[in-house]
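Hello forum,

I keep getting stuck at the same step: I have a sequence, I want structure tokens, and every attempt I make locally crashes halfway through. Rather than fight my setup again tonight, could one of you with a working pipeline run this one for me? It's a single chain of 404 residues.
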Amino acid sequence: MANFDLTRRLTLDKGGKILLLVMDGLGGLPREQDGPTELEAAHTPNMDRLAHEGCVGMTIPVARGIAPGSGPAHLALFGYDPLVYEIGRGVLEATGIGLEVKPGDVAIRGNFCTVDENGLITDRRAGRIPTEEGAKRVEVLREIALPGVEIAVRVGQDYRFAMVLRGEGLNGTIADTDPQQTGVAPLPARALAPEAEKTAALVNQWLAEAAKRLKGHEPANMCTLRGFASEPGLPKYHDVYKLKAACVAVYPMYKGVASLVGMDVIQTSSHDSTQDEFDHVARVWDQYDFIFCHVKYTDSRGEDGDFDGKVKVIEGVDAALPTLLNLNPDVLIITGDHSTPATYRAHSWHPVPTLLWAPATHMTDRAQAFGERECMIGALGQFPAADLMPLALAHAKRLQKYGA
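Reply #2:
Ran it on my machine without issues. Output:
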């Protein structure tokens, strides 16, 4: 695992440029026992060449057997031990869409949902309404006031929104109000510690008012709240790694975690394709030492159970990859934050295929292609995802020798 005190001592101000490409939920499983995974089934000549020229392995996001959320999985890729540094989903969502979260604030992620005449949830995501429809409901929510509390609400992606509460004595140790199933009512906000009782009561006032104001706004006629959290105070990339770093991502949550570790977030659109994202990377490449680029839809297709759709997303990334290769990064890492097998329809605990390409410093292994089975026998072995950043820095010649 990364040791930040050691890294600060050894990191150099100058060195090679690093590109981290994360295909969310990349890892998969075969549909039948001896069949290919999604990555193995995909036609990926560019990634296969890089695997042949570079070295491969499998990363473990948190710990063996643990299926990670996206927040801790990305923290691990950024070199932070996810069991030491924790970020609530609310902070990630709020920061990712540009809301300021200060110490003492409570940040919350919201989902619009659909309830019937009895107040029971019929659709947890309100039919996946488009962002412009979500923005209309957010305007309704902005009319709600609470005594002694400043409230900021902003639309996120599609049916999502984020909210930040600011005031004296607030505490975010509160359980989610999303019951994670249909046919039941949204849960009330429930304090998980005595110091959060006041905040939970205020949130329940807000939810009661939201129910009144959203009535008649079908399909998004109610909302649930998740990921109550406070600003975590993470060490920053420039301080720990001496890197000027940037993030190119479409979804707010990934922009949020990148922002919290001190990366500049490059402006993108929710409609940007993989090629658009890679074009953004190329546009700012000369300005940064490190760029993190995130592709979402490998994970989405996995959660949908769409094996063939996930294959197509991977093939689309490979087809666009020459845009990144033409930048001539000194170190290129291609991996996922976790596995989302289409056969499983959820984040899983399986190790994640990982490719490291650094022509000036790596020694090739015997991998012929980029896929789970090749990565299982690659030179990098199985290792904690938090070790990727020290490896990247070493291959970029940004770490000096330890000891005499």
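Residues 197-214 form the longest helix (18 residues). If your local run keeps crashing, start a new thread with the error log.
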